[in-house]
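1st attempt posting a full record on here, be nice pls
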Amino acid sequence: TQPVEEDSKTAMRRSLTARSTIKKGETISEDKVKIARPEQGIPPNQLTTVLGRLAGRDIETNESIRWSDVR
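the predicted structure (as C-alpha cells):
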C-alpha cells in the first residue's frame, strides 16, 4: 500500500475515548467512555475488559484511553 492509503486506514480506526473527565482512582463505567477516531488508544473490542477497572491517572474529556491509564 501507498503511504497515503496507510494514513487513511489509520484515520478510519477508532479507540476508546473519555466521554467526560475520569479522575484517577475512579471506576471506568460505560457512561464515561465513547468510541471515537482516531485510533490512539485501546480498541473498541476491549471495552468489556476496561469497564469496571480503575483509572490510573486523570483522563480528560475526549482523550484516548490507553492501557497505561487503566489499573
